[in-house]
Write a structure and sequence with these properties.
Layout: H1 2-23, H2 26-38, H3 40-45, H4 51-72, H5 75-91, H6 97-113, H7 118-143, H8 149-161, H9 168-172, H10 176-192
Length: about 190
């Protein structure tokens, strides 16, 4: 598992650098990559596999595709951003905002510059919703019930963490950070097995 985590962390640092390079320049990209790589949260989550480890590179790649679309006005990068945003929804639901950002970027160019078509906007929304619909359908076929994220993730966490009492609802609560820090050794041990 550690090589996967290390690879995803390295990919995330590279994506941060590339996004900043496109937006600002090379020196700023190096500084941003160094700051991101040395940030305590990056260092903490870089040692074990959590959903954020996969969600962040997906979301950053979607953002990179959006910036590429804004500079080239080609449809393919924005379609990739939308499908990644939809896929992000299943990894970490709050990262689906990058799919909505793709829709907003296309709509902004359509309304402000008159470039693009309304038909492509509808197609882009369908592309964003496709992975979400397929995921719900697969979950319904495999498990016999629709996917409700809070319950699903809590059930998954209780299966993974056993009787530790650690669920995502606990982590989201007001003392979530304290609970996470108290259980960090326990979580690390689980992923080292």
């Amino acid at each position: 598992v550690f090589p996967l985590v290390l690879g995803l962390s390295a990919l995330t640092i590279i994506l941060v650098a590339e996004i900043v390079r496109v937006a600002v320049g090379r020196v700023a990209a190096l500084v941003a990559a160094a700051l991101f790589a040395c940030h305590p949260v990056t260092l903490t989550y870089g040692s074990f596999l959590v959903s954020d480890t996969l969600a962040l590179p997906l979301a950053l790649y979607a953002l990179l595709c959006i910036t590429h679309y804004l500079s080239t006005r080609r449809f393919f990068p924005i379609a990739v951003a939308a499908i990644l945003g939809g896929a992000c929804f299943f990894v970490k639901s709050y990262t689906a905002v990058f799919g909505l950002l793709a829709i907003f970027a296309y709509l902004s160019v359509l309304l402000l510059r008159g470039e693009g078509t309304w038909g492509r906007l509808v197609l882009l929304i369908a592309i964003l919703l496709l992975p979400i619909a397929v995921g719900h359908l697969l979950h319904w076929i495999l498990y016999g019930d629709p996917l409700f994220y809070k319950n699903y993730y809590d059930q998954y966490a209780s299966r993974v963490y056993g009787n530790s009492g650690l669920t995502l609802s606990t982590l989201i609560g007001s003392d979530g950070l304290r609970v996470l820090l108290e259980r960090a050794d326990y979580i690390t041990q689980l992923f080292e097995k």
